[in-house]
């Protein structure tokens, strides 16, 4: 029996996919790295929960990183404002 394209092109790379998401790659870039179209990647996400979980998991890290960065910038701005008031 022939293997599905998912089991050949995506399944072996689930950990890498999560890492790519953490690094900030978008869906089109991930699909390109896997050698599939973005439409196919979305289809696989709907059909295979382990893929969508890996993408969500990596995305949560990226969101957390973005929030931390925003918080740091806000603190720097507050510090600048306070120093100008003195």
Overview of this protein structure:
- 80% of the residues lie in helices and 0% in strands.
- With 86 residues, it is mainly α.
- It is elongated, with a radius of gyration of 19 Å.
- The mean pLDDT is 79.
Helix content: over 70%
Shape: elongated
Number of helices: 5
Listing every helix as H and every strand as E from the N terminus to the C terminus, the arrangement reads HHHHH
Spatial separation of the terminal alpha carbons: 76 Å
In short:
This protein has 86 residues and is mostly helical. The protein is built from five helices and no strands.
Describe the secondary-structure layout.
Layout: H1 5-9, H2 14-22, H3 27-34, H4 38-47, H5 49-85
Helix pairs in contact: 2-5, 3-4, 4-5
Please name the defining characteristics of this protein.
elongated, 80% helix, 86 residues, 5 helices, mainly alpha
């Amino acid at each position: 029996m022939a293997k599905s394209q998912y089991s050949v092109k995506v399944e072996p790379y689930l950990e890498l996919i999560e890492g790519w998401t953490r690094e900030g790659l978008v869906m089109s870039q991930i699909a390109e790295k896997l050698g599939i179209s973005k439409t196919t990647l979305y289809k696989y996400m709907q059909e295979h929960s382990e893929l969508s979980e890996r993408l969500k998991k990596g995305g949560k890290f990226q969101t957390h990183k973005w929030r931390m960065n925003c918080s740091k910038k806000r603190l720097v701005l507050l510090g600048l404002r306070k120093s100008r008031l003195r």
